[in-house]
Specification:
The protein has 205 residues and is α/β, with parallel strands linked by helices. The chain is 53% helix and 11% strand.
């Protein structure tokens, strides 16, 4: 996507730390959020050249009966196959980058003062440096475990395994420009988001 500077910030966090809750509050307060997962779905929606390219490479077997992408079937094809995964990434990554840049540019052109690019793997891919700054939503490991158990109906052991399979939140915090700690009540999260926006807007004014 190239280096973006000015009023565009990266937004990430660990599993169950509350990144989605923060994103919603940012939008409620006049900022814009571009969701990387939403972009990834859009570029392979029925009728797109992205989906056509996937079908050309992997066959009609990756489609559902109504012509949408069957992600589980595609995942099974590329799992453990480095060449297949590289081909898929070559199809997806340029399209995701172009659509992300288009959405970000649209918000900026519309006069939105702050845009956040919301993606789970910004730090893991090294793309956190593409932005004016990185905002990380964090909470302590025990809170993560409790939230994953409650949200996904998992045992403590299963929740811990899922969390351990990801980059530790502490590693994301280490490279963050701004950290929102989301361990307390909703009122505390609201205050933290308000404080973040005040600081960012003051810096950009």
């Amino acid at each position: 996507m190239g280096t973006i500077v000015g009023t565009v910030y990266g937004l990430t966090g660990g599993i169950a730390c509350g990144k989605t809750s923060v994103a919603r509050r940012l939008v409620e307060r006049g900022a814009a959020v571009v969701d990387a997962d939403d972009v990834a779905r859009a570029v392979v929606a029925p009728g797109t050249d992205g989906l056509a390219a996937i079908v050309e490479r992997f066959g009609d077997g990756v489609l559902t009966d109504d012509g949408a992408l069957a992600r589980d079937r595609l995942g099974a094809l590329v799992f453990g196959d480095e060449a297949a995964r590289a081909d898929l990434e070559a199809i997806l990554h340029p399209r995701i980058a172009a659509e992300s840049a288009r959405r970000i540019g649209g918000h900026l052109a519309a006069g939105v003062d702050l845009v956040f690019y919301d993606a789970a793997l910004l730090v893991e891919t090294g793309r956190h440096t593409d932005f004016a700054g990185l905002v990380v939503v964090a909470c302590d490991p025990q809170t993560q475990i409790e939230r994953v158990c409650a949200r996904d109906g998992l045992t403590v052991e299963a929740a811990r395994a899922r969390i351990d399979a990801q980059l530790p939140v502490s590693a994301k915090v280490a490279v963050a420009d701004h950290v929102i700690h989301n361990d307390g009540p909703i009122e505390a999260l609201d205050a933290a988001v308000d404080d973040l926006l005040e600081r960012l807007r003051s810096a950009d004014s």
